[in-house]
Design goal:
There is one protein chain. By secondary structure, this protein is of the alpha+beta class. Helix content is 31%, strand content 27%. The protein has 3 domains: 8-198, Heat Shock Protein 90 (2-Layer Sandwich), CATH 3.30.565.10; 212-315, Ribosomal Protein S5, domain 2, CATH 3.30.230; 329-421, MutL, C-terminal domain, dimerisation subdomain (formyl-coa transferase, domain 3), CATH 3.30.1540. Bound molecules: adenosine-5'-triphosphate (ATP) and magnesium ion. Residues 29, 33-34, 37, 58, 60-63, 71, 76-79, 93-100, 142 line the site of adenosine-5'-triphosphate.
Length: 426
């Protein structure tokens, strides 16, 4: 008597809210779609950490005009057809849920031009309902704009994190994409400012070194169809590990912890595991975040193998301090009582002294306004020692890119480019 079925509208929203919980999830799903569509360039734009606006634009194959309405329907996908395909997934997407979920909980404009068509289609959707659809002129590819995420889902809206937190999570996500696909040009613009601009690279190592601004060591091993490539930073900084299985960024606590132990807690490690798709189950987590890997122990063995030679040295007490130096920072000077000029590795960095100190206080206290007030100002005279302290602290920041309000903290030049422009070999 008291039990009744929920109206379908409520059910739709609840399940959409399970797939898309945050701006981060939204960006992740959209970029994955772009990569599945074979794009070589993906531009992401966010406003207010994605809470106000998200735009993902790509130059991929586009969506056929006859498919435009289908893509926002639940369980509509071009990626798998039957159960047997679940064993052979090589794409990021396969559930046909993401666009449906995003469309249900936002105001969305999706524009796409299929690569064999001369015109594109623009479709405007509000809370899952198509309110306008027309032909438009545009480049080949797809552009999805998401306005006011959860505007019709107040409970979820209430639980969104602070702008800075959402933005940082999206920056990290974009870095992970950049690490998984070194051949793709990624940009990230936040509140109108370009935060990341990562040109296509020759190989993984180049992208990794570019992203972290330091040199890495490469180790590689293959056995029984499994290849493990592990890149470790030469320098000790804030340790972090990225793990990719068949190009998918995954969390696998067990393996992450194992890698951390093997490479050391202060190293940056990027590990790629490539194996036949049937050896991974990507279908264990609703968000595809966790994967189950068969033969996880074999992978651990391979990782151990990679470091075996080092360990032999270690037993003989030869390896102790090998490559264990902290990054060399050289403060070149302070310009206009505003900019700290520093040489770090192969780059010349220009830091905004106010933003740098603000971020430092913020990472300690979590209070943006107080950190802004208490931090150094442009115009404050500081010594080279203070500058050095600030830059050293920056190296351990969780977010090195932007201040709590979203302004970029630094601008950097590659020394190699400077030498090249001066026609001098280093
Ligand atoms: N950027 C894009 N370029 C080309 N086609 C796209 C793009 N985004 C979506 N599509 C098409 O729309 C379909 C639905 O996308 P959606 O993300 O909802 O599902 P999916 O990627 O198939 O699976 P999942 O829900 O696991 O992401 C895709 O299968 C694809 O055919
Ligand atoms: Mg998808």
């Amino acid at each position: 008597m008291f039990v009744h079925s929920l109206p379908s509208e409520v059910i739709e929203k609840i399940s959409a809210g399970e797939v898309i919980e945050s701006p981060l999830d939204c960006v992740k799903e959209l970029v994955e779609n772009s990569l599945d569509a074979k794009s070589s360039r993906v531009d992401v734009e966010i406003i207010k950490g994605g809470k106000k606006y998200i735009c993902v634009r790509d130059n991929g194959t586009g969506i056929h005009r006859e498919d435009m309405e289908k893509v926002i329907q639940r369980w509509s996908t071009s990626k798998i057809r039957d159960v047997s395909d679940l064993l052979q997934i090589t794409s990021f997407g396969f559930r046909g849920e993401a666009l449906h979920a995003i469309a249900t909980v936002s105001k969305m404009i999706i524009k796409s031009r299929f690569f064999q068509d001369s015109l594109g289609v623009r479709m405007q959707v509000e809370g899952g309902k198509i309110v306008e659809k027309e032909q438009v002129g545009m480049q080949i590819g797809t552009c999805v704009e998401v306005y006011d995420l959860f505007y019709n889902f107040p409970v979820r809206l209430k639980f969104l994190k602070k702008e800075d937190t959402e933005r940082n999570r999206i920056i990290k996500l974009m870095k992970a994409f950049a690490l998984s696909r070194w051949d793709v040009h990624f940009t990230l613009t936040s509140n109108g400012k370009k935060v990341l601009d990562l040109y296509p690279c020759q190989d993984r190592k180049e992208r990794i070194e570019l992203l972290f601004g330091q040199k890495f060591e490469e180790r590689k091993i293959s056995k029984d169809g499994i290849t493990v490539s592990l890149y470790t930073s030469l320098e000790n900084t804030r340790g972090e590990i990225y793990l990719f299985v068949n190009s998918r960024h995954v969390q696998n606590r067990n393996l992450l912890e194992y890698i951390r132990k093997v490479i050391g807690y202060k190293k940056v490690g990027v590990c790629y595991i490539d194996l036949p798709p049937f050896m991974v189950d990507v279908n264990v987590h609703p968000k595809k975040r966790e994967v189950r890997i068969y033969k996880e122990n074999l992978i651990k063995e391979l990782i151990r193998e990679l470091f075996k030679r080092d360990q032999v040295h270690f037993t003989f007490g030869l390896a102790q301090e090998k490559a264990l130096y902290t990054p060399s920072v050289e403060i070149v000077g302070i310009i206009d009582k505003t900019l700290i000029l520093a040489k770090i590795g192969d780059y010349l960095y220009f830091f905004d002294q106010h933003l740098l100190s603000e971020r430092m206080l913020y990472e300690a206290s979590g209070d943006a306004e107080a950190s802004c007030r208490a931090g150094l100002k442009a115009g404050d005279t500081i010594s080279k020692d203070t500058a050095l302290e600030l830059v050293r602290a920056w190296m351990n920041f969780e977010n090195k890119e932007v201040c709590p309000h979203g302004r970029p903290i630094y601008y950097r030049l590659y020394l190699g480019d400077i030498y090249k422009n001066l026609d001098r070999r280093r």
